[in-house]
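Z., the sequence and structure:
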Amino acid sequence: MKKSHLLPAIAIGVMLLLLVTWFVHQPVSAQVRGRQQEWRAPTKWEYKVVLPGFPAGPVKNDEAKYNELGAAGWELGGTFSYRDNITAAVFKRPKR
């Protein structure tokens, strides 16, 4: 797979994830099931796209890499696949 095809695919995936996150985190009305709710500003997120084992092929220490990301506050937001069955993992955490 050419690198020129890889970056646009990653960018599209991240944009889709951001769009879904935006729809999910829209504020709800002040009245929820008869109780008054206080409005809170939506959480701002930062994202990191990880290609497991890329570019050298599968790497045995991917699990250690994911544990390091978890210790740094990152959580898996989702995955997406594109050409040649390459899967990318998208991690997110509240913006610091």
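The helical segments are 3-24, 62-71. The two ends are 35 Å apart (CA to CA).

Let me know what you think.
H.
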